[in-house]
């Protein structure tokens, strides 16, 4: 095989729960229920003469994470010649949708396939763990339960197809580290009790119940600092969304819809107010 094209899907945290206790590596202990959206970057990987080359169109650190992923694989496995990586970005950057992590995971998975390395999921997840907790999830993909420091990823059953509207405000958060810095310990882990209810709804394909049991520990602190995210969420709900939630550490917000007309109304209204909107669906 001379090349491979990997789809790097956007991450949706359906339930994002953080706990004050730190892991040995200094991360917050987590409990996530993650899914993916059809929205994706394309990561093309091919053999070239020497070195690791990534196209210069990727911004905001996504290329650095993909580069780190390639370097991590190259240190451990024989890769004859060089690696050329071309990333076509579609996932908004620094929006809480895991675009950079998805690209890095696509590099790990793609290199394994391209060079016939036969790296099993456990080893690929271990490589991903050196790059960030979301990379671990993205290596596995699909509907998953994520625990520990983000490195314990358990594949669940199939995800119901749900129409999703993603709205990204014009404002940009300083960083993911900043989002962690504004968390209040007393507000962490409050959504844990909803996880079994959410999982039951997912197993039954009960979309209204899924939407009612979404949770994100970042939502309240981020909305205090960036009220626009709360206004977007409110607008989605007023337009007929079954549920709406901050995406990851923000600042994107996603809404779940069962009425295409309602989703279109929300999209038009939010774009009038300056948000970038993307319609997609869960995988």
- Biggest pleated-sheet summary: 7 strands, mixed
Give the CA-CA distance, first to last residue. 27 Å
Helix content: 25-40%
Shape: globular
- For this structure, what is the CATH class of the largest domain? Alpha Beta
Q: Kindly provide the radius of gyration, computed on alpha-carbon positions and rounded to a whole number of angstroms.
A: 19 Å
Question: At CATH's second level, what is the architecture of the largest domain?
Answer: 2-Layer Sandwich
Give the strand tally: 11
Summing up helix and strand content along with how strands pair, one would put the structural category as: alpha+beta
Counted by DSSP, the helix tally is 10
CATH topology of the largest domain: Ribosomal Protein S5, domain 2
**Percent in strands:** 25-35%
Q: What's the overall average pLDDT, rounded?
A: 93
Query: What string gives the helices and strands in order?
Result: EEEHEHHHEEEHHHEHHEEHE
Textual characterization of the structure:
With 283 residues, this protein is α+β, with helices and mostly antiparallel strands. It folds into two domains: 3-155, Ribosomal Protein S5, domain 2; 163-281, 2-Layer Sandwich (Alpha-Beta Plaits), CATH 3.30.70.890. 36% of the residues lie in helices and 29% in strands. The protein has ten helices and eleven strands. The protein has helices at residues 62-76, 99-114, 121-129, 133-140, 176-181, 195-204, 207-212, 219-225, 227-238, 260-272; strands spanning 3-22, 28-48, 52-54, 82-88, 144-148, 152-155, 163-168, 215-216, 243-246, 253-257, 276-281. The strands form two sheets. Strands 1, 2, 3, 4, 5, 6 and 8 form a seven-stranded mixed beta sheet that branches. Strands 9-10-7-11 form a four-stranded antiparallel beta sheet. Strand 1 (3-22) and strand 2 (28-48) form a beta hairpin. Helix 1 packs parallel to helix 2, helix 2 crosses helix 4 and helix 8 (219-225) crosses helix 9. The chain is globular and about 55 Å long.
């Amino acid at each position: 095989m001379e090349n491979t094209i990997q789809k790097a899907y956007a991450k949706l945290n359906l339930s994002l729960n953080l706990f004050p206790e730190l892991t040995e590596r200094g991360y917050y202990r987590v409990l996530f229920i993650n899914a993916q959206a059809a929205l994706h970057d394309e990561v093309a990987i091919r053999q070239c003469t020497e070195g690791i080359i990534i196209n210069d169109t990727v911004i905001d650190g996504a290329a650095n994470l993909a580069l780190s992923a390639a370097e991590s694989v190259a240190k451990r496995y024989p890769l004859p010649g060089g690696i050329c990586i071309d990333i076509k970005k579609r996932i908004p950057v620094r929006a809480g949708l895991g675009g950079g992590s998805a690209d890095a995971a696509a590099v790990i998975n793609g290199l394994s396939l391209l060079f016939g390395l036969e790296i099993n999921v456990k080893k690929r997840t271990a490589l991903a763990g050196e790059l960030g907790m979301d990379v671990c999830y993205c290596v596995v993909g699909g509907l998953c339960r994520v625990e520990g420091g983000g490195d314990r990823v358990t594949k669940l059953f199939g995800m119901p197809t749900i129409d999703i509207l993603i709205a990204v405000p014009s404002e940009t958060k300083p960083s993911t580290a900043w989002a962690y810095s504004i968390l209040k310990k007393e507000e962490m882990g409050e959504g844990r009790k909803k996880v079994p209810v959410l999982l039951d709804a997912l197993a039954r394909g009960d979309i209204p119940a899924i939407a009612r049991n979404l949770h994100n520990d970042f939502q309240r602190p981020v909305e205090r600092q960036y009220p626009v995210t709360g206004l977007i969420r409110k607008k989605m709900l007023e337009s007929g969304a079954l549920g709406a939630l901050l995406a990851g550490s923000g600042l994107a917000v996603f809404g779940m819809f069962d009425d295409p007309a309602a989703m279109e109304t929300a999209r038009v209204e939010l774009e009038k107010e300056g948000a970038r909107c993307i319609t997609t669906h869960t995988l």
